[in-house]
Design goal:
Helix content is 0%, strand content 51%. The protein is mostly beta strands and 231 residues long. The strands form six sheets. Strands 1, 14, 15, 16, 19, 20, 21 and 24 form an eight-stranded antiparallel sheet that branches. Strands 2, 3, 4, 7, 8, 9, 12 and 13 form an eight-stranded antiparallel sheet that branches. Strands 5-11 form a two-stranded antiparallel ribbon.
């Protein structure tokens, strides 16, 4: 989440800032980098403009880890991957999806430790809602566009280009070739996702640019986080 920068801290380099390029990262082989909090580490996947620009990253809280209260200009999106994340509004176990809108404030922490997928400063707009979604509830899932797909919508809103969902692929499921208007980002949460460009095991992050195309499938089954639009 939000990171604090002291006057003596060196500027952070951009990471995968050219959104016209396709990027594939196996996050399991990346080292964790320390953050200024001392109890929180991160793996940056996308960063532009250092600590004050848009960021997409994996974030890990050590047991007892915390950040002081801070605001979220242009919003914050969180998917809790493991452990229990907390702030003054509640506790959020693995499988929780959070959206904190522009201008919101909180004091995040984790008593037990947790791992998060976090997107910062990528949801401008004063009318976006705060969301807390339990993705583990089976009644919140719906059939996908082809047999073998289940979809759990997480966020979309009229007037904004982004659409976020979890998609579960049964073994042997194939999807038709399609074009990504506004780009697509995928984080493989379980199993192995694949297309004609390669195979992507658990922990792989994929960013495909505007108007890219592919024909995805999964031989063994998988669970993926998907965000389309906004690139």
């Amino acid at each position: 989440m939000h990171t604090l920068k002291s006057p003596s801290s060196p500027a952070l380099a951009d990471v995968n800032a050219d959104t016209t390029q396709r990027v594939v990262i196996k996050t399991t082989s990346m080292p964790w980098e320390p953050s200024p909090s001392g109890t929180v580490s991160r793996k940056p996947l996308y960063r532009e403009g250092g600590e004050s620009g848009p960021v997409t990253s994996l974030v890990r809280y050590a047991p007892g880890g915390a950040f002081p209260e801070h605001a979220h200009p242009e919003g914050e999106e969180i998917l809790v991957l493991d452990g229990v994340f907390s702030d003054e509004r509640g506790d959020y176990p693995a499988g929780t999806f959070l959206m904190n809108p522009h201008g919101s404030r909180h004091s995040p922490r984790s008593q037990t430790g947790c791992t998060l997928f976090v997107r910062l400063r990528q949801y401008p707009g004063m009318d976006r809602p705060r969301l807390v979604e339990n993705t583990t509830a089976r009644d919140s899932w719906r059939p996908g566009l082809v047999d073998g797909l289940e979809v759990r919508p997480l966020y979309s809103q009229g007037g904004y280009p982004q659409s976020v969902a979890l998609v579960r692929w049964a073994p042997g499921t194939h999807f038709q070739r399609h074009t990504h208007w506004g780009g697509e980002e995928i984080l493989v949460l379980e199993g192995e996702f694949a297309d004609e460009h390669g195979r992507y095991p658990q922990g792989t992050w994929i960013r495909s640019p505007h108007m890219s195309q592919h024909t995805p499938f999964s031989d063994v089954g998988c669970l993926i986080y998907v965000r389309v639009g906004g690139l």
